[in-house]
Write a structure and sequence with these properties.
The structure is a single chain. By secondary structure, the protein is α/β, with parallel strands linked by helices. 28% of the residues lie in helices and 25% in strands. The strands form 3 sheets. The chain has a 9-stranded mixed β-sheet with strand order 11-10-9-8-12-6-13-16-15. Strands 2-1-3-4-5 form a 5-stranded mixed β-sheet, with helices on both faces. It has a two-stranded antiparallel ribbon with strand order 7-14. Helix 3 runs parallel beside helix 4. The longest helix is centred in the middle third of the chain and has 13 residues. The radius of gyration is 23 Å and the shape is globular. The protein starts with 5 loop residues before the first helix and ends with a strand. The mean pLDDT is 93.
Length: 363
């Protein structure tokens, strides 16, 4: 029988982790595979917060199928936790189960873990390996890693534009520049995010719902509106159902009371210019356990977020069309020299229906 490789084990664990893409936040997405005598005897992936983690799911799966996990190899996409949170430590569960080896794709940068899970396993006599398919594992949890390492979410800005970079006609009409396939794909990216952010300009002009509709998801992302002067109408669709966060810079007790009656949370984060302090907002969202932030806004807010260094990557859908004199993607100041240009690198380019999807990351 051919030996089961570490690469095979982690690859399968990553496939399992993709099953919980929309459901684990604020926890990381983790998959786990248990292998004994070159066959998979247990599999699992992280359940919603407060429920079993991937390792416990896989141990329970093996037990339900009548397998003995003693001496088995465990493949997991993230270092097993070593602390008590909503659930007991996974490292302890693996030690109690008597597994022989644990292979992790990456370590967990959570200060409560940070190598302690693997260390605990090693001290218990379990052979430990870390660093298999690291890049793929990081991509799976790019937001969680960002929050743990930087204290703020991974920020992805989505834009749909024509090939000449226009997002709407001169009068603001924009439905639809890109194809149904591209729009559905955009909803998948919304669904994986913890929160969706827009500005008051977009709310006033388009009255968006800012939720996931094109695909099935068990969880709707948190909705956030940047509205410095609290101009939002209490009847705006983005407030339907309650729970929306509105971030302002100037208090308005009467308007705040109206919004609270709609189940909205209003908080103030002013900068020196009477606008919302965007870098401070990112840190606040980190404290509120937002891993991935999905931005769908107009050119003005897009430009402000980019200027203030708040954006990690652009998710751009380009349609094979030209709109001519029309609205652009970002309001950014004129440059005096080419050396001042903001640099990105193409992370992924893919065709979605007739359109092109570009993931580009700021360098």
């Amino acid at each position: 029988m051919e030996n089961f490789s570490d690469l095979q084990g982690i690859r399968r664990a990553l496939e399992l982790a993709s099953n919980c893409m929309f459901t684990t936040a604020p926890n990381p997405r983790v998959g786990c595979v248990i292998v004994k005598e070159n066959r998979i005897i247990g599999e699992g992936y992280t359940q919603p917060p407060g429920q079993a983690h991937a390792e416990v799911q896989a141990l329970n799966d093996a037990a339900s199928r009548g397998f003995d996990v003693r001496g088995a190899t465990v493949y997991v996409t993230l270092e097993p936790c070593s602390h008590y949170g909503r659930t007991p430590p996974c490292a302890d569960a693996l030690i109690r189960a008597g597994v022989g080896r644990v292979v992790a794709a990456i370590g967990d940068p959570n200060p409560l873990v940070a190598g302690q899970g693997l260390s605990k396993l090693a001290q218990a006599g379990i052979e430990v390996t870390c660093g298999v398919m690291e890049e793929e594992a990081r991509e799976m949890n790019i937001g969680f890693l960002s929050r743990m390492q930087r204290g703020k979410p991974w920020v992805r800005m989505k834009v749909a534009a024509s090939l000449d970079g226009k997002t709407a006609l001169h009068d603001g009409r924009s439905q639809w520049i890109t194809s149904p396939e591209a729009r559905n794909d955009g909803h998948w990216w919304r669904a994986r995010a913890c929160a969706i952010l827009t500005g008051i300009g977009t709310v006033k002009e388009d009255d968006p719902q800012l939720n996931v509709r094109a695909i099935d998801t068990p969880r709707q992302p948190q909705r956030i509106v940047i509205d410095s002067r609290l101009e939002i109408s209490p009847d705006a669709r983005v407030l339907e159902g309650g729970g929306t966060w509105v971030v302002a810079a100037r208090p308005d007790p009467e308007k705040e009371a109206q919004l609270r009656d709609r189940g909205v949370e209003v908080f103030m984060l002013p900068n020196a210019h009477g606008k919302v302090d965007l870098p401070a907002l990112m840190l606040e969202l980190g404290k509120r356990q937002i891993n991935e932030l999905h931005v769908e806004a107009g050119a003005k807010l897009n430009g402000s977020l980019i200027r203030e260094g708040c954006v990690d990557e652009l998710l751009v859908y380009l349609a094979p069309s030209l709109l001519g004199e029309a609205r652009g993607m970002f309001e950014l100041p004129a440059l005096d020299a080419l050396e001042e240009k903001r640099l990105l690198k193409f992370h992924e380019v893919r065709q979605i229906g007739p359109d092109l999807r570009i993931l580009a990351r700021f360098i």
